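We now fix the convention by which a protein and its fold are recorded. Here is one such record, which you should read through line by line:

>
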Amino acid sequence: MIPVEKNKEYVACIDSVSSDGNGVAHIDGFAVFVPQTVDGDKIKMLVVKVQKNFAYGKALEITEPSDKRCEPMCQHYKRCGGCQIRHIKYDAQLDIKRDIVENAMQRIGKFENFKVDGIVGMDVPERYRNKMVFPVGNVYGKNVCGFYAMRSHDIIPLDDCSLGDEINREINDAVIDYMNENNVSAYDEKSHKGIVRRVFTRKSFSANEIMVVVSVNAKSLPKREKLISKLRKVSDRIVSIVLNINTKRNNLVLTEENVILWGKDRISDTLCGVKFDISPQSFFQINPVQTEKLYSKALEYADIDENTSVMDIYCGIGTISLCAAKNAKSVVGVEIVERAIEDAKENAAFERCTDVITNMIMKYGPVLKRKWAVEEWLRSIHVECFWKELVVNQYRKYAENMKKRKFVMKKSAA
């Protein structure tokens, strides 16, 4: 018998934090997930949803706060769905993330007694994101830009997000001002009417440059010169203004159809001393400061030298590939997104790493879009071509699936 009921209040103690950032309480051994809580919190909660094996609750009152709790830096945190654990002290956040990894490796990966030696955190865990996405909508008759509320598509208007660059506030204001002054409507998901869907920004940390992408439900933008003028007045850091066309009834952040309104079609950033050109659709790690630490540590553990050939699976625009190429004999990147392959080749050419991206990608790229094709192809060539080589797999979901299919890649003893 389930010991909790929907719409009923309970007093509980949070004893752990789940992988998605919810605090976990137990009522007679039955798990209840409670957002924005942390282990050590004593709370009064309302059960809002009950399932067969667990329930969801809402904290009504923190009767005794945990010593791991802190005041969130963001005034919108309690309503905004962008972050999950900003009410937790950063050192405690790192401990939670370590526990999540250890639990996944032991419970899912079946690695007994797996332990993380250490975790490398940020010195300043603020203003680190190089990409931000702000949905645009009409709330109570007013055009707004912000983030979605937790577990919904209701937009919470934001004047700033402390994880991104402060310039985003001015960019969003400029877009909203342009809309108001020129009678340009916000997109409505339910009716599929309206024009402006979202504002998307990219930042180059090395060059301190900004790309602004405006996603629209139209083939063109009314009085676009007015928008260009407003955005250019924000800052000379803005070097690219792009219109992204999406007239379909979906919620894609960006489609493949871009119109360059002004400036460059891409910006450049640097990781581990390697320069990358980044287009609006490019996959590029969100946190460049931590990415450099991650890649450096991974390559240190991989112990790549001039006798090592590397295969980078789901290589994206070639970030790991090119970093590895500085020491490796050769690198092969495998990717299913055609635009990412093009970007990877251009980045490789810029770095003069002619062995990094080979014809193997283009030959197998379209075929690899079929489910399991990547894994089947890798299995077919692994023993034949790469049995002594290091294989880098940076795509968690596929790694788990490959394990389930008993396909294991490893660095073989020379």
Summary: The radius of gyration is 24 Å. The longest strand covers residues 54-64. DSSP finds nine helices and 17 strands in the chain. Residues 170 and 207 are 19 Å apart (CA to CA).
